[in-house]
Amino acid sequence: MSEETAVFAGGCFWHVEEAFGKVRGVIRTRVGYTGGKLDNPCYEDVCTGNTGHAEAVEVTFAPEAVSYRDLLKEFFNMHDPTTLNKQGPDVGTQYRSAIFCRDELQKNEAENFVRELEDESRFGGKEIVTEVVPLGKFWEAEEYHQKYLFKIRNQGVNPECRVDLGKRE
Question: pTM for the full model?
Answer without folding.
Answer: 0.90
